[in-house]
Specification:
Number of helices of chain B: 9
Structural class of chain A: alpha/beta
Largest sheet of chain B: none
Structural class of chain B: mainly alpha
Helix content of chain B: over 70%
Shape of chain B: globular
Radius of gyration of chain A: 22 Å
Largest sheet of chain A: 6 strands, mixed
Order of helices and strands of chain A: EEEHEEHEHHHEHEHEEHEEEHEH
Oligomer: heterodimer
Shape of chain A: elongated
CATH architecture of the largest domain in chain A: 3-Layer(aba) Sandwich
CATH topology of the largest domain in chain A: Rossmann fold
Number of domains of chain B: 1
Helix content of chain A: 25-40%
Number of strands of chain A: 14
Chain lengths: 303, 230
C-alpha cells in the first residue's frame, strides 16, 4: 500500500467550519507527528467532533485544508479511511447484524484486515459472534466499535469521546484495548475525551480547543510540570494586584489569593514575595483536569 | 462490493418479501379462481380481460413496492443513522450507490418480468381461448403497459431523488407518490385551464413520467455523490 511521504499523521492549515453565522472550527492549524498519542480536549461545543469529522472526510471544511497521513481528507477520503480506525461517541453499527456479520461485512473493505488480531480482540472483549448488535450493552457495542477500528491495523486511530457513558469497569477494559492497539505497532492515536484522567493516562501531547480555536498544544508532561496552582495568603492590609506572568486563572477570597500559572518557575514565587506581603505561600501540583478547568475558566473570564 | 450488496439485500429483505407477495398474490388468486370455476364447468373467465385486469392489479400494487425501493434506498440508512457507520468505512460513494441500484432496479425489473411472463406466457397456457398475440394486438393493453411502465420509472426515480435528499424513507416514498400526483394533475389541470380536455394523450403522461423518473434518478445520484455528509 503506497503512502504519501509525510512526517505528520495529521496536518491542518486554517481549517474552518461554519454553520451559518456560527464558527464551529476557526482557523485551526495543527500538526501531529506520526507515532504517539495526542489528546484532543475542550469543553462541549468547542469544535472537537467537527474537527474529527473533517479529518474523516465526513463533513466539508468551509475553508482551509486537512491532510491525514499525507492524504487530502476530502479528496482522498477512501484512502484515508483505509488507513484510519475511527471510534465515534455514538455507535450506529447495523443493529440487525450479528457481531460475526458486522465483522464479515467490514473485513473485505480493508486491505490490511488481520484475522488473527480480530480473533484475539473478540476473545479479549468477550464478544460472542452470534449475538445481534441490538442485544449488546452500550459497553459491548463500544468494544465492538474499537475492534472494528483496530482489526485492520490502522496507522492512525481516532477516538472521539469513546468512553462516554461507559461504566468504570468497561471503560478500563476499553482503555486497555486502546493501549494494546497502541503497543501492537508504531501507531498514532488521536484521543478526544471529557474524561481527562483517561487522556492524561494515554496522551503524550495535548491540544486544547476552545470556541473553535486551538488555544494550547504541547507535551502533556510539559503542561503538567509547567502549570501550578499557587495559594497565597496575604498579610493584613495587603491587597492583590497584578498576578505573575503566565497566570491563566485567579480567584481572591478575602486574604486568600489562588492563581494558576502556566510556565511556572521558582521566579514566580520570588515575584510574589517581592511584590506582596505574604503570610503563607503554597504551590500545588495539578492534574490535567484541573489545568483544563482553570484554562477554560480563565478564558471565559477574559472573554 | 459483495459485502455492500449483501448488506443492501438484508436491509431490503422484508420489502423484497412484501414485493414478491404483492406481485404474485393477485395471480395466485386469479389462477385458483379460474381452476375452481373450470372444475365447476362455469365458463365465466373466457377471454383475455380478467387476465389483463389481474396484470394491472398486480403491477398497480407493485407500484407501492417500486416506490418504496426508491424511497428506502438512501434515506432508510439515514433514518436509523447506520449511514454514519457506513460513512467512516473505506467505501466510495459510487460503490454505495451502485450496490443500492443493483438491488432496487433489478427488483423492479423482476416484478415486471414476472408479470409479463404470467400475462403473455403462463396465462395462454392455462386459459382456453387466450393467446399472447391477441393480447398484444389490443391497443388498450399496449397503452396500459406503457403508462404503468412509465409510472414505475417515475416512482422509482423520484423516490430515489427524495431518498437522497431527505432523512426519512417514509417521507421519501410519500413524496414519490406526490410527484406522480403533480404530474397527472398538472397535465389534466393544464388541459382544463386551456379548455382543451383530451388534448394530451396517455403518451404525453408516459413521456413526462419517463423524463421525471429518469431525471429524478440522475439528480438523486448527483446530489448523493456531491454530498459529503452521510
Amino acid at each position: 500500500m503506497s503512502t504519501p511521504s509525510s512526517n505528520f499523521a495529521i496536518e491542518t492549515a486554517g481549517l474552518t467550519k461554519r454553520y451559518g453565522p456560527k464558527q464551529a472550527v476557526n482557523d485551526l492549524s495543527l500538526r501531529i507527528p506520526r507515532g504517539g498519542a495526542f489528546g484532543f480536549i475542550g469543553p462541549n461545543g468547542a469544535g472537537k467532533s467537527t474537527t474529527i469529522k473533517m479529518l474523516m472526510g465526513m463533513t466539508r471544511p468551509s475553508a482551509g485544508e486537512a491532510r491525514v497521513l499525507g492524504f487530502d481528507a476530502v479528496g482522498d477520503a477512501v484512502a484515508v479511511k483505509q488507513r484510519v480506525g475511527y471510534v465515534p461517541e455514538l455507535h450506529y453499527i447495523y443493529r440487525w447484524m450479528r457481531v460475526g456479520e458486522v465483522i464479515a461485512f467490514c473485513r473485505p473493505l480493508y486491505e490490511t484486515w488481520n484475522d488473527r488480531f480480530c480473533a484475539e480482540l473478540l476473545k479479549l472483549f468477550e464478544l460472542d459472534p452470534n449475538n445481534k448488535v441490538k442485544q449488546l450493552s452500550k459497553g459491548m457495542v463500544a468494544k465492538l466499535a474499537l475492534l472494528l477500528a483496530v482489526a485492520h491495523q490502522p496507522e492512525l486511530l481516532i477516538l472521539d469521546e469513546p468512553t462516554s457513558g461507559l461504566d468504570p469497569v468497561v471503560r478500563e477494559e476499553f482503555l486497555d484495548g486502546v493501549l494494546r492497539a497502541l503497543c501492537e505497532r508504531e501507531r498514532t492515536i488521536l484521543f478526544s475525551s471529557h474524561s481527562l484522567s483517561d487522556v492524561q493516562r494515554i496522551a503524550d501531547t495535548v491540544g486544547l480547543i476552545f470556541e473553535g480555536r486551538l488555544i494550547d498544544h504541547c507535551r502533556t508532561e510539559d503542561l503538567l510540570n509547567g502549570t501550578k496552582r499557587i495559594r497565597a495568603v496575604l498579610a493584613d492590609g495587603c491587597t492583590p494586584g497584578s498576578p505573575p506572568e503566565g497566570t491563566i486563572w485567579q480567584r481572591v477570597n478575602h486574604r486568600e489569593w489562588v492563581m494558576t500559572v502556566r510556565g511556572y518557575s521558582p521566579s514566580t514565587l520570588e515575584f510574589l514575595r517581592a511584590k506582596y506581603s505574604l503570610s503563607n505561600l503554597e504551590v500545588i501540583d495539578l492534574g490535567l483536569e484541573d489545568v483544563f478547568k482553570d484554562l477554560i475558566k480563565g478564558r471565559k473570564a477574559t472573554a | 462490493m459483495k459485502s455492500l450488496l449483501w448488506k443492501d439485500y438484508r436491509n431490503n429483505r422484508l420489502l423484497l418479501i412484501f414485493g414478491f407477495a404483492v406481485c404474485v398474490g393477485p395471480w395466485i388468486i386469479a389462477i385458483v379462481r379460474y381452476i375452481q370455476l373450470s372444475m365447476k364447468g362455469e365458463d365465466v373467465w373466457w377471454g383475455a380481460d380478467p387476465w389483463v385486469s389481474t396484470f394491472s392489479v398486480s403491477v398497480g400494487l407493485s407500484l407501492i413496492t417500486i416506490a418504496m425501493l426508491g424511497g428506502n434506498a438512501i434515506a432508510a440508512e439515514r433514518a436509523d443513522r447506520s449511514a454514519e457507520f457506513l460513512a467512516y468505512l473505506p467505501v466510495s460513494r459510487k460503490s454505495i450507490l451502485l450496490s443500492k441500484a443493483l438491488i432496487a432496479v433489478p427488483t423492479a425489473l423482476v416484478i415486471w418480468m414476472v408479470n409479463l411472463v404470467l400475462l403473455f406466457w403462463v396465462t395462454p397456457c392455462i386459459a382456453e381461448g387466450v393467446s399472447a398475440a391477441d393480447m398484444v394486438r389490443r391497443p388498450e393493453v399496449r397503452e396500459m403497459l406503457g403508462v404503468l411502465a412509465a409510472t414505475s420509472i417515475l416512482l422509482l426515480g423520484s423516490g430515489w431523488f427524495w431518498s437522497a435528499v431527505l432523512n426519512s424513507h417514509g417521507l421519501a416514498t410519500g413524496m414519490s407518490f406526490f410527484v406522480l400526483a403533480v404530474v397527472v394533475l398538472g397535465i389534466t389541470g393544464i388541459e382544463y385551464g386551456l379548455g382543451v380536455e383530451g388534448f394530451f394523450t396517455n403518451k404525453t403522461i408516459t413521456i413526462v413520467s419517463l423524463v421525471v423518473g429518469i431525471g429524478g434518478y440522475m439528480a438523486g445520484c448527483g446530489y448523493y455523490l456531491r454530498r459529503l455528509e452521510p
